[in-house]
Design a protein that fits this description.
The protein is built from eight helices and eleven strands. Helix 3 packs parallel to helix 4. It has a six-stranded parallel β-sheet, with helices on both faces. Strands 7-8-6-9-10 form a five-stranded mixed β-sheet, covered by helices on one side. The chain folds into two domains: 129 residues, Rossmann fold (3-Layer(aba) Sandwich); 101 residues, Dihydrodipicolinate Reductase, domain 2 (2-Layer Sandwich), CATH 3.30.360.10.
């Protein structure tokens, strides 16, 4: 499989190592230093694009790949205000788009655990739920895409919680997400249910970025045999 990497920061470099280790080729790398190489002709020499860039650049990158007719795997977060517009364009064009707020298999199992716990806690109004996430200081968006996924799943299950806020909770109908940026932390996400008498907490802690990189390469492999709008639920058969 020939992969074009769109974005060559820490994640891009880790993805390249894993892709090469799994027998794939990376004949094209697009980064801020070579935008002139980001052409339809160059993209069409590749089988799939893996995109990890910035929220402002991501939607345009997706559409360039769509125009070239190659599948896109993206883990960029912070661009979701344009999500429905992008998905609709891929649907109309018959393109393949695989997006995940987090490609780690462990995190996606954690998502399922979060949904199950929220279902169990829903009848017990004495518990207030909150989310905390910690990442490295170079992460541009807050809260993280992973935290937003966690929060939205909680909002679907817990009565009385109508929206999340990225600050201390001011009203009972708000779901509090507290974001911290510390050192080189790959990612820690915690969900806390607290009452006057006890609290329940579940946490996922990433040790390295390798889980994200591996998951994105596996997603790219999955795209060769599948089409349409794809997610980790499809890949993991959840």
């Amino acid at each position: 499989m020939k992969i074009v990497l769109v974005g060559y920061g820490k994640m891009g470099k880790e993805i390249e190592k894993i892709a090469l280790g799994r027998g794939h080729e990376v004949p094209l790398i697009i980064d801020i230093g070579n935008p002139k190489d980001f052409t339809k002709e160059n993209l069409q020499k590749c089988d799939v694009a893996i995109e990890f860039t910035t929220p402002g650049a991501a939607p345009g990158n997706y559409l360039k790949c769509l125009e070239a007719g190659i599948p896109v795997v993206s883990g960029t977060t912070g661009w979701l205000a344009h999500k429905e517009e992008i998905l609709e364009k891929f649907r109309k064009a018959g393109g393949t788009f695989f997006y995940a707020s987090n490609f780690s298999v462990g995190v996606n199992l954690f998502f399922e655990l979060n949904r199950k716990l929220a279902t169990l806690m829903a009848p017990y109004g004495d518990y207030n739920v909150s989310v905390k996430e910690t990442h490295h200081t170079q992460k541009l968006d807050a809260p993280s895409g992973t935290a937003i996924t966690i929060a939205n799943d909680i909002l679907e299950k817990i009565p009385g919680k109508n929206d999340w806020v990225n600050k201390n909770q001011e009203h009972d109908n708000q779901l509090e997400i507290i974001s911290e940026r510390i050192g080189d932390v790959p990612g820690i996400h915690s969900i806390i249910y607290e009452s006057d008498i006890d609290y329940i907490e579940i946490t996922h802690s990433a040790k390295t970025r390798k889980g994200l990189a591996l998951g994105s390469v596996i997603a790219a492999e999955y795209c060769l045999g599948h089409s349409g709008i794809l997610t980790m639920k499809d890949l993991l058969n959840i």
